[in-house]
Every structure is written in C-alpha cells, then in structure tokens.
Design goal:
The chain has about 230 residues and is of the alpha+beta class. The protein has 5 helices and 8 strands.
Amino acid sequence: MRGLPLLFMVLLGLVVGSSACVPDFLQKYRKESANKEAAAEARNEVPTGPGSDIPLGISPEPATRSSATGSRGGEAHQRATIYALDKQTFRFHLREEDVWNTALDVLMKNYNVNIVERQSGIVTTEWDSYYLSNSVYRNKISLRFRRQASAVVDLTIVNNVERLRDASTAGSGVGAVWLPAADAANEVARIVQNMALALRQPPPILPPGVVAAQSSAVDAPGAAITDYVEKSR
C-alpha cells in the first residue's frame, strides 16, 4: 500500500516532464510560427486574415470635401495675375512695359504727375484735393516698380493722405493746417482695380481687410467691379 503513492508520484512526474520538454521534431513548428510572426511585425504586416499582405502604413488618400474646396480656391488664386504681397505691394504676372504704361495711364486720369524716372522705377504725383464726408482731404501717390522676372513685376503704391483741420480755410489757403489721415477712400485699391481693368485681367486679390473701391454705379457692397472706378471728389 505504501508503494501506491510513490508510483502515483512517479507517473505524475513523467506526465509533467513530457509536457515541459517538447521533442525536437515538434519544437521546429514552434520556431517556424515565432519566426513568421517576427517577420510579419518587421514588415508591418498583419500575419493572418484577409488582406494580410497589405502594409499597414499605406492607405489610399480619401477625397474629402475640404480638399476639393481647397483645390477650387487654389485654382482661383492661380487664375489671378495681380495679387497683394502686403498692404502696399502688388505682384503683376505681366510684362513690365505693360504694367508701367498702364500705371501712368491710370494716374494721369486723376493726377498731375510730378516725377517719372523709368530707370529707377519711381513715379510721384502732385497733391490733389478732394471733398469726402464733410471734410477736405488731399493726397499724392508714389509708385515704385521692381522687375522680378521677365513677366513678373512688383508694384509698391504709397498713398499719402492729409485732412484739412479747418475746412473754412480751404479757399484761401492762408493758415491751413493739414493733418495726417487714413485712406478712407481706398485709393490704392482703386488704382490696382483700374489697372486690372485696363490690362484686361481678372479682378486683383486685395490684402486681407481691404475693401474694394466701389463705383458710383455699383450699389451693393462687394459687387463685381466691371467699370472704371472714379476718384473721390
């Protein structure tokens, strides 16, 4: 009877030992399975299941609504040949000679030109007075042309505006005091818009926050400008 527990313990040890020690001819399957999983992880692949041969890091790019909208906006910007680099500088994707001649034509409709230097690209006008919102203003324009490429010109437009402190002295000019003022009439935008019209180009892209100058024939704010915009008087 004492030999039965001992025999039971011997048999139990043989069973446990056989499960822990796998024979060599069975061990190779375990190695192959582990190697396959390691290789799959190295290739960033799903080891099993449908489509397991497709890398996880690659996926087709979805055609989203925002991307489609962005492409339409990009096309609109590509079509524009005149756009703002900053509040005073505009880039013209046109011949320098055409931009130069058109700028002079637009200025001479409303200003007396004071300085014209073709070599340096400098143009200035004399002071021009006008009446706006119950106040008397005067302004003069300065232009600077910079040729960037065979058909790319940067045009800087500076509008110096002053307001007469006492409108009663406008006629005599004696004791008149002129104070610096903002460009309430959007004169820079008006010049660029008229240049685009004269050059038969699409409407220019103005700087952010700058409102397009409106013609007296245009009632709705933001309406398309199709006619020459006159200077404020």
